[in-house]
Design a protein that fits this description.
It is a single chain. The strands form 3 sheets. The protein has a 6-stranded antiparallel beta sheet with strand order 3-4-8-7-6-5. A 4-stranded mixed beta sheet has the order 9-12-10-11. Helix content is about 25%, strand content about 35%. The longest helix has 23 residues. With about 300 residues, it is α+β, with helices and mostly antiparallel strands. The chain has 2 domains: about 150 residues, no CATH class; about 130 residues, 2-Layer Sandwich (60s Ribosomal Protein L30, Chain: A), CATH 3.30.1330. The radius of gyration is 29 Å and the shape is elongated. It is built from 7 helices and 12 strands.
């Protein structure tokens, strides 16, 4: 059977496998990084060289009863050499490092790629700016071959970019409109809740300060995309002051956010509830200014999707 390792077409490589394919598994990553083994296990780890590019990794189970690992590897090695590759590492079980080598390299999990710890062979080779590795093992009835190939790959053309000020902490950094829409939408879909961390209230007040809040636009966009959904806005405070006062303040802040969603973004008021939890659900310590700042927030929680 002929095997074509695909990316990219200009660097196509065809290998003939020593048996008929029963099962096949493939993993691809473009661009990605692969730790190419360059020497046997050295007592601490498997020496490897990081190779970046288009990764194509495939595992094959072959109908080849009685085929030894040497008999399986030899024709593959010959084909790799004939294709112009130079061998970096060529070893068998004990010389590779046995158990430690097997678990120190990247292998597609069982049962797609079976590796007998007592009987396997490994080959890595390079040609110009591309590399290939082959791992061969067997079970009582089948031969298993894993082939990993890395070829040059350009970075993708990113449609959206954003400058980030690394001196600004996560909770101080304002979200862009697109960033908020994506982040909050994903959080509501996956977790059913999201913190609206860009909201700013005057100290001790329930009034939102003037400004644009991408998180509110993101919530409105999510509600528009999910017309059957309802949400609750839950206000939280730090632990300064009494519980009664903080619950009242946190609820007023949630109500202020609901009013902003209704007035600014046209959200149906029947789809929003506003509640306050005070300081009963902290997400950080109340012993520091930074922790108290994180605890004072409003969260949106999905309450139903009809």
């Amino acid at each position: 059977m002929a095997l074509l390792l695909v990316p990219p077409p200009a660097f196509a490589l065809t290998l003939t496998l020593p048996g008929s394919v029963i099962n096949e598994e493939q993993r691809s990553e473009v661009p990605g990084s692969y730790a190419l083994p360059t020497a046997p296990f050295d007592g601490t780890s498997v020496p490897a060289r990081r190779v970046d590019g288009a990764i194509d990794q495939r595992a094959f189970e072959l109908m080849a009863p009685g085929l030894t690992t040497l008999a399986a590897m030899m024709p593959l090695r010959d084909q790799v050499l004939a294709a112009g590759y130079e061998v970096i590492l060529d070893c068998e079980t004990r010389a590779c490092g046995g158990f430690d080598f097997r678990y120190g390299i990247d292998v597609i999990p069982e049962p797609k790629m079976h590796v007998d710890i007592g009987d396997f062979r490994f080959l890595s080779a390079e040609r110009d700016d591309e590399v290939v590795s082959i791992l061969v093992s067997r079970s009582a009835a089948s031969t298993f071959v894993q082939i990993t190939r890395v070829t040059p790959a350009a970075l993708p053309n990113l449609a959206v970019t954003e400058d980030v000020d690394l001196s600004v902490t996560k909770h101080d950094r304002p979200l862009s409109q697109d960033g908020a829409r994506i982040a909050i939408g994903l959080a509501l879909d996956a977790d059913g809740s999201a913190a609206l961390d860009d909201l700013v209230f005057a100290s001790g007040s329930s009034a939102l300060t003037e400004g644009e809040y991408p998180s509110l636009a993101a919530v409105a966009a999510w509600l528009e995309a999910n017309p059957g959904a309802t949400i609750a806005l839950v206000g939280h405070t730090d632990a300064s002051g009494s519980l009664t006062a903080n619950i009242a303040l946190s609820k007023r802040r949630a109500e202020a956010v609901a009013e902003a969603l209704i007035a600014t973004h046209g959200v149906d008021p029947t789809r929003i509830a506003a509640e306050g939890a005070g300081y009963l659900a902290p997400r950080a310590t109340n012993q520091t200014d930074a922790g108290r700042q994180q605890n004072g927030r409003v969260e949106v929680i999905v309450t139903s999707i009809r």
